[in-house]
Amino acid sequence: MLIKTESEIPASEITDPLIFKERRTIIKALLAMGITGAAMPVALANNQKPKWQNLAHDNLSNLALPPTPAELVKNYTNYYEFSLNKEDSTSLAQTLRTDPWSVEISGEVEKPGTYHLEDILRQQTLQERIYRFRCVEAWSMVVPWVGFSLGNLLKTVKPLSTAKFVKFTTVHQPDVMQNQRNQAILEWPYIEGLRIDEAMHPLTMLAIGMYGDILPKQNGAPLRLVVPWKYGFKSIKAIVKIELLKKPPLTSWNKSAPREYGFYANVNPAVSHPRWSQSSERQLGSSFFTPRRQTELFNGYGAQVASLYRDMDLEHFF
Amino acid sequence: MTLPSNKIWFFTIVGCCLPLLWLIVDIAANNLGGNPIQALHIRLGDWALRFLWITLAITPLQTVTKWRGMTDYRQLLGLCAFFYATLHLLVYLVVDQGMMWQAIAVDILESPYIWFGVLAYLIIFALAITSPKFAKKQMGKNWKKLHRLIYFASVAAIIHYFWQLKGNLAEPVMYLVLLALLLGFRVLVWLKNAKFTKMMIPKGRN
């Protein structure tokens, strides 16, 4: 299925001259190294070669979007199993056991089973996709994810016609996840869900990496969901179970505060959170005195996904 | 009082400025994390709240410790709360929103938690401009009435604080408990006075 992204670039998308200049410097430095014969990407991350260097960018990427500096993305995570503090999860999550990893796929499918992550990956072609990620807390970042469409995985287990929803479950490791151990904040393990057509949509991906490298543990390693037109809390981390269901699952935030967090959680500037506006967002990496970015309906992916919600009252199904 | 009062003044003023200096150092050292604008905004708000609480603590502390000199510093501490609240507001308008007034209007209209912040600020603003001695003289009895609004400002401030939270409750609950103690003290005093006044009325007269 070929889905064209809009090519028009609004003024707000044009890279901040400062960041542009910074990038020029990096590119120049890299070129200089190339000329002198030094290994180019060595300088990129922890002096290790990124795992995937020349992944195909498919046409689902927003290539015009400048990715947020990786260090910001790695140190600004909402991983409530570990901490409420976005910076603390970075070190706390390192204790998570991610190898070996398997995913149970069950419910309304022809081929249920528990699949090793390596076996899943062997059947998939990895791609890099640059998506904007918009948090319900009104900030956003642009991340080059590495992964594949969730739909491609679901097709391999053959969903039955009775499969109307997909439920995702995060790993339960209370010995290392302190808030699971203390039963704090939310009911654990974390649960998320999608309607089957949302799950099968080619934009919906399972990510195993970002910035050309393996996903850091605090960012949801080894396997996380990315649904770019929905608020970030839908993009569940460290997935161990995928169930195809007849009925919508009760998702964690929806269960905890149903008035504030809906099942759909589509990015929508016109539908405020009951306590704060969703009309604009702070882009991570933007400098002081840079106005906030005006939030777009479906986070800017309306051309691809608006048809999924035709005739639906988005205010009611928030 | 053993310390000379000019020394206490000096240390109080330095104490009021320290959080700002600390913040400036953190900005210069790029030490504000992944979302520095939000961090700056939140830290200024936190200090406005803390100084407001400290201001409210003066009367109870004075009653408990019987140290009479404290009210001299209450004005300074209150103005300090106003100072940090003003910076908090300016960071929101200028540093975060870049003075895009239309966007600001939409944001405020759609964010109930901001309404309480605005209410708290308006009250503190009124208290700050009527803070000089000549204003106090001119206003007479009304001055005290107006300045009792600080209780409403503190309640609006704590609502403003709570209503923008997503999960982290530990620190806010601490401030809420402190505020309950600070305001509870006034209620106790009021109840005690009411009882006392009742006792003062000769029996059989009503």
Structure description:
The complex is a heterodimer of chains A (318) and B (206). With 318 residues, chain A is an alpha+beta fold. Chain A has a single domain (45-309), classed as Oxidoreductase, molybdopterin-binding domain (Sulfite Oxidase, Chain A, domain 2). Chain A has helices at residues 17-35, 70-74, 89-92, 117-122, 150-156, 178-181, 196-200, 252-256, 302-305; strands spanning 102-107, 113-116, 127-134, 139-149, 165-170, 191-195, 205-210, 213-214, 224-226, 239-245, 280-283, 293-294. In chain A, strands 3, 4, 7, 8, 9, 11 and 12 form a 7-stranded mixed sheet that branches. The longest helix of chain A has 19 residues, at 17-35. The relative contact order of chain A is 0.16. The model of chain A is unreliable at 27-46 (pLDDT under 50). Chain B has one domain. In chain B, helix 2 packs antiparallel against helix 8 and helix 5 (112-129) packs antiparallel against helix 8 (150-162). In chain B, 81% of the residues lie in helices and 0% in strands. Chain B is mainly alpha-helical and 206 residues long. Classes of the chains: A alpha+beta (318), B mainly alpha (206). At the A-B interface, loops of A face helix 2, helix 3, helix 4 and helix 5 of B.
